[in-house]
Design goal:
Beta-Lactamase; six-stranded antiparallel beta sheet; two-stranded antiparallel ribbon; single chain; 259 residues; alpha+beta; Arc Repressor Mutant, subunit A
Amino acid sequence: MASSKPTAAGRVLAILDTFNDRHDSLSLSSIARRAGLTLPTAHRLVGELVEWGALHRQPDGEYAIGLKVLELGSLAGHRLRLRQLAHPYLHGLHHATRTNVHLSVSLERDILYLESMLAPDGAKVESRFGGRWPMHATATGRVLLAAAPPEQLDRVLQQPLTAYSAATETDPGRLRQLLAEVRQRGVAVAYDQIATGVIALAAPVTGPHGQAVAAIGITAPKDRFTSHQLIPPLTTTARRVSAALNGPDGPAPERQRAA
């Protein structure tokens, strides 16, 4: 019978996994607590990670992700190529709608932002390149979950689901209903899930066999925008990125007009 005791590699990965866009700088005690390690074990492993370059010790004594991880991340070429290919289309959508525009892919139970273009007076939702949010609470996450294999969907919905606002949907049964609606409509529309007063929409970017490989999302103040205004330019952009991704004859980017 296999032991459930964490391996050395598992403990190192648990340390790295304690960092995210909301916890980009952590004390040693916080790292130990979040990784489920004793303080002496965390101290030893963090020291080795600092020496190798995966972590960086800041002047205030806290730790942050080091440049070695960034260097390794740059080798994820296929996702960075997707970001490069999509960029002019996303810029057109951003220019046309004057909203926050995102390109997301799935990463375990989260979405990972490959691109994030923020409007000066746009919705106040924390997002940046490389940032993560749980899939259940985002429109791009729901688009990707709706297209996910059943086992991935079950893994996501069987875990405790965090609420980020009073309106965040955390009931697995209700989320399954919402995902069925996303499959039917081809877009996700959500309100107030991470921040109050925000409408979020997303549409899939599809690969050569029609599978969703990424999602393009918009977040905007819901008192200034409606889904009817934003869905047409959003879905047009998603189709154009999909076409460009799947062959050399995809349409060239062009300036769009919001409805």
